[in-house]
């Protein structure tokens, strides 16, 4: 049976996961919490609130942005190092990319840090989300009425991908062939980048606030429904004209967080009542990882080996589930 090491924080975790083998939680109060067997270390990463966080697994660090206008990287050693500062501006989105590249956003500007220099890319609309392509230095931003693609190493104008509505998050597929945005309405939208072909992913009863790519990019798993919704991306056309896979249905209880296993065709599913299930893609078989809690699960992340899962809930509850018991 899995065992759970429980934690309780004064505010909720923006992101839960692992820095190398160290469990780590990016807390809304601006701290990074690194619990160990001998205590809970609090790293003061930002003064004021922490607004965005992403785990950079390739480089063993947690990238964060905050109300203090700083972008920081926290390593397993518990040191928060400043990567960039833009003054008294809120950093509202961050992303990690290949070769230590980092992207972040504030207002109508997106920034790319690469090779020790920061380049600012301005846009006519507020930048709501940022993503870096899995290969090469290519930036995508989410904005009102679509997304834009930049090549930061050049001065070429951005490529616009248009679709009416507010787009608030953005992600490349692991193979770089597709771009997907989360929308303010209850939907996702996507484009096949080779030809700009549109992909509409609709039918959600709630906004999609959590998504996770399966190993090798076979599926994009999402929250926003009373089941985890997995859109197929393994074929040439992605999810176009294909029905999604649905896992972990529990009546009307909403799925609020998803995290695909790093190697196996398996998904951790977090719910509004605090329960966490594991479900297999092939047959939908489920196993309980956490029986429930005081609030909705809002963030989850696996360790590299896929043996432990860190999670956080909206109430400040958090923990690490060890599958080995």
TrEMBL record:
Highest taxon in the source lineage: Bacteria
Protein name (Swiss-Prot/TrEMBL): WD40 repeat domain-containing protein
Source organism (scientific name): Antarcticirhabdus aurantiaca
């Amino acid at each position: 049976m899995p065992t759970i090491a429980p934690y309780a924080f004064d505010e909720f975790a923006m992101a839960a996961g692992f820095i190398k083998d160290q469990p780590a939680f990016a807390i809304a109060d601006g701290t990074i919490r690194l619990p160990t067997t001998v205590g809970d270390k609090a790293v003061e990463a930002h003064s004021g609130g922490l607004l965005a966080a992403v785990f950079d697994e390739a480089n063993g660090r947690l990238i964060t942005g905050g109300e203090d206008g700083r972008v920081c990287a926290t390593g397993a050693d518990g040191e928060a190092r400043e990567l960039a500062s833009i003054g008294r501006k809120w950093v509202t989105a961050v992303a990690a990319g290949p070769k230590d590249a980092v992207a972040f956003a504030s207002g109508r500007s997106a920034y790319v840090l690469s090779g020790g220099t920061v380049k600012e890319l301005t846009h006519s609309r507020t930048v709501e989300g940022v993503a870096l392509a899995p290969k090469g230095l290519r930036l995508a931003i989410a904005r009102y009425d679509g997304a834009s693609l930049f090549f930061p190493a050049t001065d070429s104008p951005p490529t616009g991908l248009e679709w009416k509505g507010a787009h608030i998050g953005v992600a490349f597929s692991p193979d770089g062939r597709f771009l997907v945005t989360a929308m303010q309405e209850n939907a996702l939208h996507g484009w096949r980048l080779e030809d700009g072909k549109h992909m509409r992913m609709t039918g959600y009863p709630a906004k999609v606030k959590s998504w996770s790519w399966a190993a090798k990019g076979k599926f994009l798993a999402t929250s926003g429904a009373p089941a985890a919704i997995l859109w197929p991306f393994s074929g040439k056309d992605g999810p176009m004209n294909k029905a999604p896979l649905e896992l972990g249905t529990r009546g009307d209880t909403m799925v609020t967080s998803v995290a695909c296993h790093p190697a196996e065709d398996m998904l951790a599913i977090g719910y509004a009542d605090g329960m966490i299930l594991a479900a297999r893609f092939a047959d939908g078989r489920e196993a309980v990882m956490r029986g429930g809690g005081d609030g909705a699960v809002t963030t989850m992340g696996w360790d590299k080996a896929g043996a432990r899962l860190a999670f956080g809930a909206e109430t400040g509850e958090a923990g690490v589930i060890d599958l080995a018991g």
